[in-house]
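Notes continue from the previous slide.

Worked example: a multi-chain complex. Inputs as given:
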Amino acid sequence: MSSAVTDEKNEFLSAHFQNEEQETEACTLGMWLFLAQEVMFFGAMFCAYAVYRWMYFDAFLAGSQSLNWVLGGANTVFLLLSSFTAAMAVHSAQTGNNRKVARFLWATLVLGAIFLFIKWTYEWPPKIQYGVFPGMNFNPDAHHYPGLAAFADKGHLQLFFWLYFVMTGMHALHMVIGFGVILWLIWMANHNHFGPRRYLQVEFFGLYWHFVDIVWVFLFPMYYLVT
Amino acid sequence: MANESTQHHDIPERDYHAPKSNYLNWQHTVSSWLLTVDHKRIGVMYLIAISVFFMVGGIFAGLFRLELLTPEGDYLQSDTYNRFFTLHAVVMIFFFLIPSVPATFGNFFIPLMIGAKDVAFPKLNLLSWYIYMIAGVMGVTLISLGGLDTGWTVYAPLSTTYANTNVFLATITIFVSGFSSILTGLNFIVTIHKMRAPGMTWFRLPLFVWAHYATSVIQVLGTPVVAISVLLIGIERIWGVGIFDPALGGDPILFQHMFWFYSHPAVYIMILPGMGVISEVIACFARNRVFGYEFIAFSSIAIAIIGFLVWGHHMYVSGQSMYAGFVFSLLTMLVAVPSAIKIFNWTATLYQGNVVWDTPMLYAVGFLGLFAVGGGTGLFLGVIGLDVPLHDTYFVVGHFHYVMVGGMVMAYLAGLHFYWPKITGKAYPRLMANIAAIIIFVGFNFTFFPQLVLGWMGMPRRYHSYHPDFQILNILSTTGATVLGIGFILPVFYLLWSLVYGKDAGSNPWGARGLEWEACTSPPDPHNFHEIPVVTKECYSYTGEETVSV
């Protein structure tokens, strides 16, 4: 574990750490534990989905067929691209190119914003407008959602949309939090903060963003591609 | 590694010059406390906060024990009674038991025990205290808005449809307090992995640290599940949609599964740190190496792992599959094994040791007996055939209070009396403390043993009135609760008294082993150690040389 950096004075080393290596390892382990916690957080909802899909498959099939897989597929592409730019931002931070870090982070932000724009313009509002939002006013419009209006078991259909809104909503919330982190990282990049020994913040953002991406990679087939 | 890490690194000599300076007195302003990132000060702030919540929870218990003096519902209507026992449980579980030992003594002592200057993420540590306090303020708001009447389990559809109280606020409160627990657990895991002093190998760690490691794993992996589950209950209630309400297409059993997936392991969050304290206290006052150190260490890990697989034993009568019940019953038998290993090993440690009777030891020995009763009655309830008639009776109430109060609160008080001289630097009056320990032990048994008998006779829990035949045992229980209450109040007086009038304790009043006693002053230095210590021996070397060379 001995390392040359031990003897060098590093102004960024927190006082309670012995050396930079210890700090790096501690922060990395902490980040992975945070992600483990996130897996359990989403895992509970995935579990609920699995149980109800198994119990009420017909309702889940009808619900899924009313979703537009083209929009969902396009969003998957945007999100995967944003993961690529996030990975490039990490790489740029490791090589100390702060201008590139900022640019790639802006790209990540824009791609993520496109994802949310599609979701918040073409996916959620029509459903809320035409009675596909679960709750007391759940009454799918026969013109816009004929399949749903014709489906008899409205109770379990609501269950499908309830899980849909909660899980995609929770996913969107994680993206919005990610935007906040991106803006903070861009600010740091503009102040030339990152370099070969100081890139952990970007790397951890990358891990987080990939996690959010992976959640969507599961959500997409679960909700849009049920057959 | 040893040589270079012993160098004292780059901490500027801040404001402390006098040798008498310690973490308590080196800065005096209010903001030096509220904005501190010192794990010791955060531990003390937690200690103050949880003591207040313990008192609040205790007052609720006292109020409904008073109602239970008579068979009729005299002064509490059933609705009020429901709120009181629910609030007692919510406050005690989420605001006292779960943070009790980890957030106070764990925070204070893990870095000292492993030879670190602080936990891995000091700011996160402070954040977790603030989250806890925000949840606490929400909890107090909840109480003042009429409380909660669903029981702490917030089962659907009672909580989502029928309850007349502020279920949404309650679920958000539990959600928020959960994140305080997750952050503490995350911090401890990283601290234990990465912050150990040179020579502090895994098998030289005090068992207190092992117990906290196991606890932290449960906190990080279990808490998010209950957080999202109760959040779903809250959202369901606000929007009137059914994810768990059967009338709206949901499945209430699913909620019970998701709830107990955390809430059963949560009882190990509550008891494991207490077991850690007991290992320290028994080793110290038996003047002996803990018998079977590795077995106790790994039994903590085993409890954390198996504990995740037994939640279904809360649901034998809920309508889950019979075969699932069978498997959960078997696994419940299995999870008792590591706890039994601990009990046997502690007893063996006493057997070979030179026992010194002092206040922490009184509590620790009380723990051994009471926890054995609590664990044993747990086995009764783990057997499906016996659980069906005993379900929702006072037998269950008696059982988990033997574990939670007889076990955890005893362990907490053992820890408080063991560590008080280190935390404050002051000695408390031993005789008073010993008397309080005995009062608590007697009061506890008078409170809860009658409840085991009542449950066996068939008295159901959660009712404000009962059959007149049960009255004598209920009077006994309420009388015991009064004695227990007095026992809990006594330490408040003599411990606070000791802050002002107590003699200086000295750095190692118990003759204990471990970095926190041998390499630290009482109260410790703001930065814990002047030099990072090098560990050369196993812990608990009570029969050999000292554990450290500083």
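Summary box: The interface with chain B takes residues 1-2, 6-7, 9, 13-16, 18-19, 22, 25-26, 29-30, 33-34, 36-38, 40-45, 47-48, 51-52, 55-56, 134-136, 138, 153, 155-156, 158-159, 162-163, 166 of chain A (CB under 8 Å). The mean pLDDT of chain A is 91.
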